[in-house]
Write a structure and sequence with these properties.
The complex is a heterodimer of chains A (423) and B (178). Chain A is mainly beta and 423 residues long. Chain A is 9% helix and 45% strand. Chain A is built from 4 helices and 31 strands. Chain B has 178 residues and is α+β, with helices and mostly antiparallel strands. Helices cover 44% and strands 12% of the residues of chain B. Chain B is globular, with a radius of gyration of 16 Å. Chain B contains 5 helices and 4 strands. Chain B has one domain: OmpA-like domain (60s Ribosomal Protein L30, Chain: A), CATH 3.30.1330. The longest helix of chain B has 23 residues. Chains A and B meet through loops of A and helix 4 and strand 3 of B.
Chain lengths: 423, 178
């Protein structure tokens, strides 16, 4: 087992950028791609080093091993300066070089190149013209290109996450970059905030607010900061989930007695009841193709995961092991469902493969909750209780890579991973 | 059984220090004071009369000697059964509501921290619904009781052990306008 500690937070703190979350990674087994990320020419003069962020992004996935670049003199910034034999001797299989140059009106050109060290060939070369304030975002885009080129999967370094921070009686809904940086509070309240859910285009968040001393569902436009109450029926209003076309929200309402699943227009309006049971039906989730709705129901005596066709039809039970399987979330490819499983007195994140019915327990916490898939399906972010506090953690779909995102203050809970950026 | 003794102890404790808890623990303070009068859909009507009477001879809803000042029904783990020891409390509130025809309540269910947040929100609501059912059987009309839940979001006790959890598995009765 290898342990990698990333103190990205400490590095950037010195530069005046405040890290909200520090990330600690554990990987076990599996091959890691050795990659050298050389400092970029000219980045020392910039407010934001780029190569460091690229390296931290790649390292955090657990799929790469960073090769030391110290002592290479001069560090290559042009293809002609690369001494492949030397990088090969350092066991690097991939090499990233780049440079940052001022262009017109204060903007910068960032150019990077990715090489296959063994084949001595260039795998990718891109340049971006950006403002100094965009350097960190540019570093994430570079990491996305490298990740995709070397693993075949889309990178998620340019995505956002949201989560709730609780400090004493104060609740904040925050949105941050996927690496925990640039955390911004989009809502603050002295009442609980729960269950944030991204609209498919990432422009809006639906969440549960208790500002009216009971749970209601609110949709907030992130760019404009405007909010709209979309479900405030008698009783509880909770568990919002967007339809893939953004037109509807599935919600859990108790307006007719016990909690059941309903569909409402995303802008608010009449609720159409979708489930009919004498128990609790809640935590609905659309499959990515919009064909299915998975949900939690205790109609059979214990809470289990069920699904039904979105257009109506027979309900089918999906989980059978154990007496507590709740909170389904579809993977982006629709092939599996992550959920919370109770085993003895412990609550863990598990994944159900729909084709085979096979269940794999992915985490080993005591009170894990709220799994949410990265939009490339490779990682599942969730809430874990550590030392009596809520903290975020992430696990790869195969359970091999684990991350713990530690916040300095308060409970961090109810994460939701945003969609791929649209640009 | 060990559990039963513990529940008894908790029930006694809860009965004994319900009013004290309100002062100590801000998370439950809204039981009496923090509910802004504007939030309830029916807030205004019931506040005026009781308060004028309160000053004269005390409000039975807040008088610590009145059974009506007891507002919390506690539950066993994974259960929404209203235990016999809380029947008297629920009966007292039912009688008060059948007398005071304009009174309305919200019953707020709560859970301990274990399990999934959203499912706990629904479980809390079912606890509230169980208390409501007893009250409707005793003659309070359905429309005067709204059942909601805070799930595991507003614990009274902050510990991560059974003694805290037992205090957090409860339904609170709140009168409109309080």
């Amino acid at each position: 087992m290898k342990r990698l500690f990333l103190f990205a937070g400490a590095i950037l703190f010195a530069l005046g950028v405040r890290a909200q979350l520090t990330i600690d990674i554990t990987t076990s087994g599996g091959r890691q791609i050795p990659i050298a990320v050389a400092p970029m020419a000219g980045e020392g003069a910039q407010p934001q080093p780029v190569a460091e962020v690229v390296a931290a992004d790649l390292s955090r996935t657990g799929l790469f091993r960073l090769v030391n670049t110290a002592g290479v003199n001069p560090l290559p910034t042009e293809p002609s300066e690369v001494n492949f034999a030397e990088w090969g001797a350092r066991s690097a299989e991939a090499l990233v070089i780049g440079k940052i140059e001022a262009v017109s009106d204060g903007r910068l050109e960032v150019r990077f190149r990715l090489f296959d060290v063994q084949k001595q060939g260039q795998l990718a070369s891109y340049s971006y013209v950006v403002t100094p304030a965009q350097l960190r975002a540019t570093a994430h885009r570079i990491a996305d290109v490298i990740y995709e080129r070397l693993t075949g999967d889309k990178g998620v370094f340019s995505t956002k996450i949201t989560y709730v921070v609780k400090r004493g009686r104060r609740y904040e809904l925050q949105v941050a970059d996927a690496d925990g940086f640039n955390a911004q509070s989009v809502l603050a309240s002295n009442e609980p905030i729960m269950s944030p859910a991204w609209s498919p285009d990432g422009s809006r968040l639906a969440y549960v607010s208790f500002d009216q001393k009971k749970p209601i569902v609110v949709v907030q436009n992130l760019a404009q900061g405007t909010t709209r109450v979309v479900a405030n029926f008698r009783g509880n209003n909770s568990a919002p989930a967007w339809s893939p076309d953004s037109r509807y929200l599935l919600v859990a309402l108790s307006k007719d007695g016990l909690t059941q699943v309903y569909r409402i227009p995303a802008g608010g309006g009449d609720a159409e009841r979708l489930t009919e049971s004498s128990g609790i039906d809640t935590q609905p989730a659309f499959s990515p193709d919009g064909q299915w709705i998975a949900f939690t129901s205790d109609r059979g005596g214990s809470p289990q995961i069920y699904r039904m066709p979105a257009s109506g039809g027979p309900v089918q039970r999906l989980t059978f092991e154990g007496t507590y399987n709740v909170g389904p979330r579809y993977s982006p490819d629709g092939k599996s469902i992550a959920f919370v499983q109770r085993d003895g007195g412990r609550y863990r994140i598990a994944a159900l493969e729909l084709a085979t019915g096979q269940v794999t327990v992915l985490t080993d916490g005591t009170l894990d909750d709220s799994p949410t898939f990265a939009p490339n399906g490779k990682m599942i972010l969730y809430e874990a209780q550590v030392g009596g506090r809520g903290q975020l953690a992430a696990v790869s779909g195969d359970g091999r890579v684990r991350q713990r995102l530690t916040s300095a203050a308060g409970d961090v809970q109810d994460p939701a991973w945003g969609p791929m950026p649209t640009n | 059984m060990k559990k039963a003794a513990l529940y008894l102890a908790v029930a006694v404790l809860a009965g004994a220090c319900a009013s004290k808890e309100v002062q100590q623990e801000p998370a439950v303070a809204d039981r009496s004071s923090a509910v802004p009068p504007t939030t309830g859909s029916t807030g205004a009507s019931s506040t005026t009369r009781p308060t004028t009477m309160d000053t004269m001879r005390g409000n039975p809803l807040t008088d610590p000697n009145s059974p009506l000042s007891k507002r919390s029904v506690y539950f066993d783990f994974d259960s929404n059964a209203v235990k016999d020891e809380y029947r008297g409390l629920v009966q007292a509130h039912s009688r008060y509501m059948t007398d005071k025809r304009d009174s309305r309540i919200r019953i707020e269910g709560n859970c301990d921290e274990r399990g999934s947040r959203e499912y706990n929100l629904a479980l809390g609501q079912r606890r509230a619904e169980a208390v409501k059912k007893v009250m409707t059987v005793l003659g309070v009309s359905d429309g005067r009781i709204e059942t909601t839940s805070y799930g595991e979001e507003k614990p009274v006790a902050m510990g991560h052990d059974e003694s805290s959890w037992a205090q957090n598995r409860r339904a609170d009765i709140k009168y409109s306008g309080e």
